[in-house]
Amino acid sequence: MITIKSEREIALLKQAGNIVYKTHQYLKPYIKEGMTTLELDHLAEEFIRKNDATPSFKGYNGFPGSICTSINDEVVHGIPDNRKLKNGDIISIDIGACYKGYHGDSAWTYAVGEIDEEKKYLMEHTEKALYQGLEVIKPGSRIGDIGNKIETYAHQHNLGVVLELCGHGVGTKLHESPDVPNYGVAGSGPKLKEGMVLAVEPMLNIGSPDIYMLENDWTIVTEDSRPSAHYEHTVVVTKDGYQILTGE
Ligand code: MG
Ligand code: MG
Predict the structure, then answer these.
(1) Position 248 pLDDT exceeds 90
(2) pTM for the complete prediction?
């Protein structure tokens, strides 16, 4: 069942989302050569807790980190550890925060120092694919419209769409109904209604869309070891469109 959030709930989701946004902004200056992903994780957790929230991912199905840190060919669910960031890396940071029982969820890909043209291209067009998907959100649109826009845009730009992972509803649970795939047929799937809250999150690869899971049972990497990017916002469907909750 897809829940419709009340005004009170949307206000709390907005606060949770804003904490996620602020955590991203807080981390930005620390995303540089020599930092470890575990240091980023600790900074994020401390910041989230200072804002009276808890990291949504910590302990989620046993996930060991407070945030997900996925470097280069890692698509999602990278586990923070003692690896140091290197000049030329890209890192996707996925952050979830729970405030008074409501979650916010947003991922962003960042450059470490100077990155090559291919990675710049991947980042630019994965971010644009996210906004392409968001653009169609309004009451009466369908879930398939979102995925169709993302998939069409990705293919126009020769990027591989990860099919096995998708966006989702957000509320008192981090992952709620419905699934929001990054592919689909326009006009298909559940109809959007005012008050629905969705996380839209394209994961695009510079090469093949194929992925596999590492032996740590969490981290998803690209089959061809080429880079992947991930951009995600949590949004609420409004009367005539949508509002980003994981923004300012
Ligand atoms: Mg996320
Ligand atoms: Mg998500």
Answers:
(1) no
(2) 0.98
